[in-house]
Amino acid sequence: MGSGKSRPQSNVLIVDDVPDFLKETSAVLRPHFGVTVCSSPLRGLRLIKQGGIDLLITTLVMRELDGLEVIRRVRGSGNALPIIMVTGFGNENTAIEATRVGATDYLTKPVEPEELIARARRALTYADVQEEVDEPLVLSQDTTMLEVIEVCRRVARSPSRVLILGETGTGKELFARMLHARSQRAREPFVDVNCAAIPPNLLESELFGHERGAFTGATERRVGRFEEAGEGTLFLDEIGELGIAMQSKLLRVLQTGDFSRVGGSRNLRSQARVIAATNRDLSQEVQAGRFRADLYYRLNVVTLEVPPLRQRFGDIPILVRHFSRKFAQPGHEPLGFSSEAMQRLCAYGWPGNVRELEHLIERLSVLVTRGEVRLSDLPAHFQGVTEAAPVAPAPTNRPYHEALREFQRTYFQNLIAAAHGNLAAAARQAGMDRSQFFRKVQSLHLITGS
Ligand SMILES: Nc1ncnc2c1ncn2[C@@H]1O[C@H](COP(=O)(O)OP(=O)(O)OP(=O)(O)O)[C@@H](O)[C@H]1O
Ligand SMILES: [Mg+2]
After folding, report:
1. How would DSSP label each residue in 413-428?
2. 67 pLDDT exceeds 50?
3. In this structure, are residues 190 and 180 in contact, taking their beta carbons and an 8 Å threshold?
4. What is the DSSP letter of 441?
5. pLDDT tens for residues 272-285?
6. Which of 225, 254, 285, 429 is buried most deeply by CB count within 10 Å?
7. Which of 212-226, 297-311, 370-384 shows the highest mean pLDDT?
8. DSSP 86
9. Are 176 and 20 in contact (CB under 8 A)?
10. How confident is the model over 302-326, as a mean pLDDT?
11. Which is it for strands 162-165 and 302-305: parallel, antiparallel or unpaired?
12. Which among 311, 328, 312, 421 is positioned nearest to 373, based on CA atoms?
């Protein structure tokens, strides 16, 4: 990887209102990239809108508009431009917030020239890959999710098998498609098989194909999914539902690459990369003797664990906006949400995760013609979620510290939801300074920090 190749034409825009910083960084970058400097963030945003910028480097503290707001506005306009944030105070919390609002990377001052060049190249490589293929967009501003996305990007180009774990509807298939889109196999087929949806007696022929006359009803030769995938990606969804007999057959292909069609004697070779997913705890299935340990280890070279939506409610406003745009009715603006309604959405547990949210927004987009969704527009099971539910009636049957923590979680959760995920605004509302607010929210595991 990273042989230092960067297209000579990559254009970097540096935004800061301190002339010295602009002078120093542009001197460092100019031998490697096209460089534009801009001392006004507002003018910078206009330049970006005009197009032709491949990477934005912005600092945090600027009089006209702070760096976080710059990132928010770029992302708010749906622009996926890579952004590097440079913070002046070695402030980890701001860095976390920068990534939450959509920065690709961050650096702290003083910036080492070599480091700056390397990071700029890295950010641009991501962008290159993204341009090459039509990649599914995994939206998130949650630190744990961003780490999963980062791992996904890194392993995509390697031939390693990947096991994707996560509850139903968390986006496992989306990750599988992203792995494929970012791999060297992107132009080869992506074939997905839902192991739970196919009757066990048909699964073998589904995966490996069959010869004519292999069994009653096999009137034609059929090519299986392994063959169909060729040198592409075979996505085995719901792998945890596989019966023991099929597990052995699958193990053989994964060990040797060899398989044969049902009723056939010829050995075929699979070159496909296998990605598997399940919403079960596979290691537990192994312990219980329901899943072969050797198969588990063959599949589980790299694990991606997609967190449930209730553990990253900061993503809810982003996903709501995304789906509101997606399902906007012809001739209508995307739905808006009252703060109260948004608050309820963020406080809800989402057992069906992102898919449940997606379906809800789709339904509301058809039903709510007023433009803004109010609390009363939400289905009945949302009406039951009240802000005070976990604390009132005061849970006197629990230790004080436990009850207090529960209250704090609800309080901060609602606060962040009401601020539509904007942590700085939530901190202001709480009357706390930002770093104090971050520490608190992190200690409650409402967001994770590094
Ligand atoms: N982070 C995300 N950003 C945008 N869309 C998402 C995100 N996560 C999930 N989705 C969307 O939510 C829906 C459900 O995702 P997906 O099918 O990938 O989930 P899954 O984990 O495979 O679910 P299941 O376990 O039920 O098969 C899809 O329409 C997907 O595009
Ligand atoms: Mg799925």
Report:
1. HHHHHHTTT-HHHHHH
2. yes
3. yes
4. H
5. 999 999 999 999 99
6. 225
7. 297-311
8. E
9. no
10. 90
11. parallel
12. 328
For residue 143, give Cα distances in angstroms to 95, 173, 222, 306, 386. 11, 20, 45, 12, 27
Under 8 Å between Cβ of 155 and 166: no
Pick the CATH number of 11-132 from 3.40.50.2300, 3.40.190.10, 3.55.40.20, 3.90.1150.10: 3.40.50.2300
Assigned token pair, 11:
């254009």
> What is the CB-side half-sphere exposure of residue 142 using CA atoms within 13 A?
25
CATH (residue range 320-385): 1.10.8.60
Q: Give the mutation target among 141, 320, 355 for probing the ligand 1 site: most ligand atoms within 8 A of CB.
A: 355
Check: CB of residue 100 under 8 Å from CB of residue 314: yes
Would the CB of 174 count as within 6 Å of ligand 1?
yes
Say which ligand is closest to the CA of 141: 1
Rounded CA separation 351/54 (Å): 39
Q: Which CATH superfamily is domain 145-305 in?
A: P-loop containing nucleotide triphosphate hydrolases (3.40.50.300)
Closest C-alpha residue for ligand 1 atom 30: 171
In sequence order, which residues have a C-beta less than 8 Å from that of residue 415 and are 6 or more positions away?
A: 426, 429, 430
Cβ 278 under 6 angstroms from ligand 1: no
How crowded is the C-beta side of 127, counted as CA atoms within 13 Å? 24
**What does the DSSP 8-state code read for residue 262?**
B
